[in-house]
Amino acid sequence: MRKLLTLATLLAAMLVQGIAVAASSVAPGLPAPDFALKNAAGHNLRLSEWRGDVVVLNFWARSCGVCADQLKDLEQLQKRYVEQGVRVVAVNIDREARPASEAAGRLQLLVLHDSEQSVAREYELSSLPLTVFVDAHGKVRYVHEKYRGGDAALFSEELAALLQE
Q1: Best exposed site among 16, 22, 128, 145 by fewest CB in 10 Å?
Q2: What letters, b where the CB count within 10 A reaches 16 and e where it falls short, cover 131-144?
Q3: Residues β-bridged to residue 54
Q4: Is the peptide bond before 99 cis (omega within 30 degrees of 0)?
């Protein structure tokens, strides 16, 4: 009980003194953290380059079984909405480059490689896959952890709503 009171007192003191208490940096309504990662051709691309488009960021790894299913569904969404200004970006977090380069060769998606997992940490990745919808103004609008088969329909609804704004 004494430790709990000490922790509560410390947090209260930090708030009174204006010391920020960490909050999630990836939440709906907040600006999406900008980053630069390499594509399969070795060129650095930045999230901020796509301001004006709706961006769907998907974090995945080869070891994630449902990630492959989700990437196929995201590829279909990309085909459906590309003409309306939607970009689906698949961010691979494997240490080795091969899964990213293989995916880039077989999918019609932009695949980026986060070998150091620095962007994954910035986006507070706690489970795979993680999908983040970023609106045309660079703000996070939707965050989805994990993936279930019916999520493709939900993603389509969310994209349609974002494009109506």
Answers
A1: 22
A2: bbbbbbebebbbbb
A3: 86
A4: no
Q: Which residues contact 44 (CB under 8 A, 6 or more apart)?
A: 36, 37, 38
Residue-averaged pLDDT of the chain: 87
Q: What is the pLDDT of residue 19?
A: 36
Cα separation of 13 and 35, whole Å?
A: 33
The C-alpha atoms of residue 86 and residue 124 are separated, in whole angstroms, by 23
Quick one: pLDDT at residue 26? Answer: 87
d(CA 20, CA 116): 27
The closest of 53, 55, 35, 30 to 110, measured between CA atoms, is: 55
pLDDT of 128 over the 60 cut: yes
What values do phi and psi take at 38, rounded to 5? -85, 145
- pTM comes to 0.83
Q: Which amino acid is at 54?
A: V
Taking the mean position of all CA atoms in its chain, how far away is CA 25? 12
**Residue 160 predicted with pLDDT over 90:** yes
CB neighbour list of residue 128: distance below 8 Å, 6 or more residues apart: 59, 60, 61, 64, 67, 93, 146
Question: Per-residue DSSP letters for 54-121?
Answer: EEEEEEE-TT-HHHHHHHHHHHHHHHHHGGGTEEEEEEE--SSSHHHHHHHHHSSSEEEE-TT-HHHH
